[in-house]
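Changelog note: in this version the structure field was regenerated for every chain. One regenerated record is shown below for reference.
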Amino acid sequence: MYVFAIKTLIQNIPIPNLKPVTSKMTAARPLNRIPGLDGLAFGRLISPPTQAAINKVNQTAFGNSAKWRFQPGTYTTRQVVEHVAPLLNSLIAELGQDPPGAEPSRKILIDGLRSCLAISGRESTLPIGDAINMAGESARKVMAKQAQRIGSLLVRCAQNAPPPDVTVPQMTVRSPCEGHVWTREVAGLLIGPRSNGNLMQVYNEWLHQIVLLRDGLLPFENFDEVRLTIKQEGARPVDDIRSKFLMQIMTAQVKRTTVIDVAKALTASGLPSGGYGFQYGSGLVMPLSLFTGSSSILLKYVPATVDDSRHQELLFDYENKDYFSAPRHEISVDEVTSNASSISSTNSYSTTSNPVFSSFAIENPRETDSFSQIRHIKLQGSFEDGAQYSVDVGQITRGLRYVYRAVNTNCEDSSAEPSSFALHKASDVLSLPDLVTSTSRSDGVRLHVIQAGSAVARMALLGKLYPENVVLVNGEKQSPTSALGVGKGFGPQFVIIGGDVVG
């Protein structure tokens, strides 16, 4: 076992049939494992709290007439919608009995919500429906799909919110105009003789709370599972970053820093800006790419913790803020071959291709004190030949973002010289200092080929290699020369052979 003075080791101890359970002792809590990374443990599972009997508590707390406020606590997405339902219930009660033959007020108002949450149309608050049919998986298209899925869920939650089981109090709320366009039916109802100025604000607040909830959930792939830390103002904290986020979505310039900051708005608002993931009272929020091997811009909520120190909220930041200016190590060439078939088979993997021990470790950045909320996460391990490695997880997420994937079985390239393949052991590359790179073809090498027989080894290599011209090749289906058809045309390429990033 590794022992570090300032590190907390997250051990990779085999425990079969894990289930999320609650335990009084941290050591007794089951490990959270990443199936695609050979079952590598990442923290320990928790049972996050959730608010109970929300609708009943909220509606009986105000008396006959009071200002609306949110009851602070930890909520699921459905529970947040239920908690703002008293606004809608109060509005409908104040409107009174619907005239004979008229469309029910509840249906008109919920249909108005549906139109606001849609990604196209006159009332849309996020009109990006054109992105759905775009080629590829751009961030704008990803967010359009997210908005559709989340919007549908929120409308269902609003429809299914339990009706009041007590007399509905008259709600009052100061809700400034947010610029949301009402449907003609909603406008006819709320500007008509049955309404008044207060009811218009009540509807606006109910509508805006759910729109903000949609926007605050956009970063989360599993938005229906995430636990939200809601304060008295409800989803209003999203307002502070919403305009910036929506502008980036509309202009197809979505920044990952903005995505992570939006995710904090309803979970860990006390954390500083930046980073690539974080821990808060209800679990972890990490890049989805670490679990899927993709380049996705989305995040994943996990009910687990990796650090049980006095800081409940922790920001996981990059070891190198700017990888372009980070120290680099020029790789040397020891073995050269022109026989591609000799390095394309997974049967040729040796003990230097796969770590015999791997774990995640948490550490305080050197430049911070012990009270800092900033942490670095390292993927570390050792090989049978004694080689050890430690790779920044933040840099791994960058590697996942920029890696190329070979798409052809082979690429006949006449410019590939007979001696263009340099073979490297994964253990040798991972034990080198700094970010590993190759900037010259003066030695005649076109491809630096590294065999990695496990998902953990491939993930670690993506965090060790400078992310400029790295190609992932499936060793069972593709030849190393298939890398010649992708990537940048200048400089040597690093080719990782063995399969996809996540097994």
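Spot check on this record: Residues 329 and 436 are 5 Å apart (CA to CA). The longest strand covers residues 374-382.
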